[in-house]
Amino acid sequence: MPNFKLVEESAKKIINMEVRGASRIARFAAETLKEFAKTVEKDFDENMRKASEILMNTRPTAVSLFNAINYVMMYKGENDEEKKADAIRRAEEFIRWVDTAKQKIGEIGAKRIKDGWTILTHCNSSTALMVIKTAFRQGKNIEVIATESRPRYQGHLTVKELAGEGIPTTLIVDSAVRYFMKDVDCVIVGADTITVNGALINKIGTSQIALCARESRVPFMVCAETYKFSPATLFGELVVIEERDAREVAPEEILNLGVKVRNPAFDVTPREYIDLIVTEIGAIPPEMAYVIIRERLGYGLEMGELKVSAKHFD
């Protein structure tokens, strides 16, 4: 009997942000589909389709989730057993892609960090932090300023991780970014989605930080695995900006007054504010996003749905 309970529990963890961050979500989705596939004995295509739809509907903005699911779902086979084996193989390939990409980005991005720099980071990007930690492990004397990243306070996770590495770290409220920008040498953030025109969709507040950095002539670096680039935007689709529960922002006493509360989880940073995007295949200008989508991911249209497959990911 297919284990849909496994898929539903995984979906809840993504929705409730027990599993958070684009890279972690992508890896978790691939792992879930892998374990689910092992439980399917018949009607493999139909059951995998249902499982993928449950996962796909959890976080609409995270293209890494879309690409992870589509990568696994491009399995092939003459029968259910062959399809199962190929789906499991593809899931394992994607998981390796996630694991190796982050290490490569850390090595490439660390070369852009100079000794003595103070770095500002926002939210809790495992990829951005890999760059910072790699630079520190290379012996560079760096300090980090991290935002709280309200309303979920992902910045608290960031400072704990950096402090655990022994990196001098300062936590600030989001609204203090402009005040502290004068002390910053470089901004490093992660990505939830990169569009075909090189724009960045990331944690709410990122665009304001990029604007402050541009005003102060501080380099703004994005760290993004190539599976965070959005093939759908190549065909004119807009990225859906997720809005989360108002209770994350305001207490019930405020909500009971009838006050309207908006809680977007992400915003859009124009490519003009981005100096560099560091990927596992190299550091690129945002204008090269189109090339990444066409050459790295590959694309095709099948039955009206966009299907993507990575090329040479290892």
From TrEMBL:
Catalytic activity of the protein: alpha-D-ribose 1,5-bisphosphate = D-ribulose 1,5-bisphosphate
Keyword field contains Protein biosynthesis: yes
This enzyme's EC code(s): 5.3.1.29
Coiled-coil region: none
Key words, A-Z: Carbohydrate metabolism, Initiation factor, Isomerase, Protein biosynthesis
Binding site for substrate: R59, N202, K203, K228
Biological process terms in GO annotation: L-methionine salvage from methylthioadenosine; pentose catabolic process
GO molecular function, one term: ribose 1,5-bisphosphate isomerase activity
Pfam families, sorted: IF-2B
Active-site residues annotated for this sequence: C123, D192
Matching HAMAP family: R15P_isomerase
Family: Belongs to the eIF-2B alpha/beta/delta subunits family. R15P isomerase subfamily.
Note: Reaction proceeds via a cis-phosphoenolate intermediate.
Job of this protein: Catalyzes the isomerization of ribose 1,5-bisphosphate (R15P) to ribulose 1,5-bisphosphate (RuBP), the CO(2) acceptor and substrate for RubisCO. Functions in an archaeal AMP degradation pathway, together with AMP phosphorylase and RubisCO.
Protein name: Ribose 1,5-bisphosphate isomerase
Species of the source: Archaeoglobus profundus (strain DSM 5631 / JCM 9629 / NBRC 100127 / Av18)
Phylogenetic classification of the source organism: Archaea, Methanobacteriati, Methanobacteriota, Archaeoglobi, Archaeoglobales
